[in-house]
Amino acid sequence: MRLGKLWALSSVTALALLLCGIALAAGSEHLNFKFDDRKWTLGFEHEDEGSWLKEYVLDGQSVDNWTELVTEQFFPDSQPKATARQFMESFVEKIHKASPKVVFQVLSEADTDVLFQWQIKGDPNNQDQFELDRIVSGRTGLHFLHYVIKPTMSDAQRTKWMDLLKAAKVVGA
């Protein structure tokens, strides 16, 4: 009798775990991203019709007053309309309109993935900043991961953050 109850409990537990796995699999797709070894906190998040944005700042800073910022964005159903490269080109065009002095460079590119950098320096209308970005086409949308630092980035920081951005993987959905 005791074995029968144990088997019934194990079956219920297995079913619950299976249902949890199905629920997790049906959840939102996102980039699994690891920060560097400093303490980062979520400073702002917004969701609208499936699109979302999350901004992370170093401990003690805010999204209104930061020296380094990591932003993750998701645009659902964008990948049938634009490739990662096309999305990047549209983004860069908008940056050029806001700051004609921007310097831009593609660092690596694949069919569903583009890593690029851009920098604003000496523009009287915008603060100097250096940004590394990665756009990845997932199954359910486009993921846009940004790391930005003011005023500029050292070679060591650039290498470290390029590695961190490249290591991010699409998970979920």
Helix and strand topology:
Layout: H1 2-25, E1 30-32, E2 40-48, E3 51-58, E4 68-76, H2 84-98, E5 103-110, E6 113-120, E7 129-137, E8 141-149, H3 155-167, E9 169-171
Class by alpha and beta content: alpha+beta
Bin the helical content: 25-40%
Regions with little confidence, pLDDT below 50 for 5+ residues: 1-27
Instruction: Give the integer mean of the pLDDT values.
Output: 85
> Percent of residues in beta strands?
35-45%
Tell how many strands the DSSP assignment holds.
9
| CATH architecture group name | 3-Layer(aba) Sandwich
Query: Which sequence of strands runs across the widest sheet?
Result: 2-3-4-8-7-6-5
**Rg, nearest Å:** 20 Å
How many alpha or pi helices? 3
Order of helices and strands: HEEEEHEEEEHE
The CATH topology is given as Protein Transport Mog1p, Chain A
Distance between the termini: 41 Å
The description of the largest β-sheet is: 7 strands, antiparallel
The CATH class, by name, is Alpha Beta
- Taken together, the total number of domains comes to 1
Cα shape: globular
Offer a concise description of the structure.
The chain is of the alpha+beta class. It is built from 3 helices and 9 strands, in the order H-E-E-E-E-H-E-E-E-E-H-E.
Note down, in words, how this protein is organized.
The protein is of the alpha+beta class and 173 residues long. The chain has a single domain (28-171), classed as Protein Transport Mog1p, Chain A (3-Layer(aba) Sandwich), CATH 3.40.1000. The protein contains three helices and nine strands; from the N terminus they run H-E-E-E-E-H-E-E-E-E-H-E. The protein has helices at residues 2-25, 84-98, 155-167, and strands at residues 30-32, 40-48, 51-58, 68-76, 103-110, 113-120, 129-137, 141-149, 169-171. The strands form two sheets. The chain has a seven-stranded antiparallel β-sheet with strand order 2-3-4-8-7-6-5, sandwiched between helices. A two-stranded antiparallel sheet has the order 1-9. A hairpin with an 8-residue loop joins strand 6 (113-120) and strand 7 (129-137). The chain is globular and about 40 Å long.
